[in-house]
Amino acid sequence: MATPALKDLPKVDVDLKSQLESFSPTALKSASTEEKCLLPTAEDVKMEKVQQLVSGIEGFDSTKLRHAETQEKNSLPDKDAVAAEKTHNALISGVEHFDKTTMKHAETEEKNPLPPIEAIQQEKSQHDFINGIEHFNRDSLKHAETQEKNPLPTKEVIDQEKAA
């Protein structure tokens, strides 16, 4: 740091300047200092705090307290939850750390999910046949008398069959 120029220094009164120059520290009187206001020590402060705490506890009015029901909550998971979480974590780590180099290359092949034309035509003809049966008009039929013919064999035909 540069020393300031003489013109930059503050101006001091001539009387003050002469007094400062003629000052001698030996002319001072010796004096002893006394501490008039003693501050408490750390132990005193600690003892006072303990005393205040004790007096606060002794003077406490317990009638101002309200009754409260305690509820015990179990925040720990049960065995099933732990097992499910372990399984889930094992699955995720298995997927994340899967070695893709062990996989084989596979070619994808698109298959036509539609049936062949012959199957469609057969199904259509079967559907038309069933439709024809279900929606058949009975009024278009002619009335016919049925005659039961049950020719019984004669005694001679029975005897011939037994002989044969």
Automatic annotation (TrEMBL):
Gene3D superfamilies: Single helix bin. It is found in: Cytoplasm, Cytoskeleton. Keywords: Cytoplasm, Cytoskeleton. Its main location: cytoplasm. This is Thymosin beta. Pfam families: Thymosin. The keyword Aminoacyl-tRNA synthetase does not apply. GO terms for molecular function: actin monomer binding. GO terms for cellular component: cytoskeleton; cytosol. Belongs to the thymosin beta family. Residues 143-164 are annotated as: Disordered. InterPro entries: Beta-thymosin, Beta-thymosin_sf. One of its GO terms (biological process) is actin filament organization. It comes from Chironomus riparius. It comes from the Eukaryota.
